[in-house]
Amino acid sequence: MEDIQSHKDYRNIDIDQVGVKGIRYPITVLDKDLGEQQTVAKINMYVNLPRYYKGTHMSRFVEILNEHSHRVSLQNFSEILEEMKLRLNAQSAHMEITFPYFINKTAPVSGSQGLMEYKCTFRGSLNERTDLVVAIQVPVSTLCPCSKEISDFGAHNQRGEVRVQLRFKKFVWIEDIIKLVEASASSDVYSVLKREDEKYVTERAYNNPMFVEDIVRDIAMKLNKDRNITWFSVEAENFESIHNHNAYAYIEKHKNS
After folding, report:
1. Cα(93)–Cα(86) distance, integer angstroms
2. For the segment 27-48, what is each residue's pLDDT rounded down to a tens digit?
3. In what order do the strands lie in the sheet with 157-168?
4. Averaged pLDDT of the chain
């Protein structure tokens, strides 16, 4: 059958990224406590397309994914990108994998357990070399230092979200980054809390007030000390409880290798 995609194109325009988006696919990721964790990811796969080709072969992306069934992980990310370049005759390949990651979290006083969900993304590109970024979203709780200072009693608090992106020399554990972020907020967020836990969490936040500026600075200080991390960005957003807007702060750092 005739291969239309391989026909010549005469508009003389390169395409930076072309491929498939939104593939729902089961993957295996490393779990620091359990060894492995099965989850379902949303996957995007692209390659570049030179100006002299009419189109790319979309089915080959899914074929490559199927050949790595249940083995899509940080460990073989570069291998998949290499295969994309080879099979699609491309100079660059790109892949994004976004998935929910679950941690069994224990309440601070009662010991009650419940699963917490964290949204994670592996983002990779291969040109002359592989560039890999891990992104993790962590829910947190914050209490406003200004509100505590000016109020006769109480202070307003709210849930927030911290989003961290990392480049690194060696492997990083998702759990380690989550713990680092949670330790930098007024308090963790839990899926199961008994009354004694609520008392503990409320009082802990009250004794540990944080602006979004405090959160990103504390996280940046910790990441800056980690020699495995070569680049990071950290952003904090508070979903304000008494304002009709969100509070936001962002830091990006390129470190010397």
Report:
1. 10
2. 888 888 888 899 999 999 999 8
3. 15-31, 35-49, 93-106, 113-126, 130-143, 157-168, 229-238, 247-254
4. 90
pLDDT given at position 6: 59
CA atoms within 13 A on the CB side of 111: 0
pLDDT the model gives residue 20: 93
| Phi and psi at residue 129, to the nearest 5° | -140, 170
In the block, tokens 């600075």 appear at 217
Containing 43, the helix (H) or strand (E) segment is strand 35-49
Report the C-alpha gap between 210 and 232 in whole angstroms: 21
- Could you give all domains of the chain from N- to C-terminal order, each with its CATH number? 1-102 (3.10.270.10), 107-115+122-257 (3.10.270.10)
What is the separation, in whole angstroms, between the first and last Cα of the chain? 51
The pLDDT, as a whole number, for residue 3 is 55
Backbone angle region of 101, left / alpha / beta, with phi > 0 → left and psi within -120 to 50 → alpha: beta
Instruction: Indicate whether 16 pLDDT > 70.
Output: yes
Beta-strand runs (E) in 92-146:
93-106, 113-126, 130-143
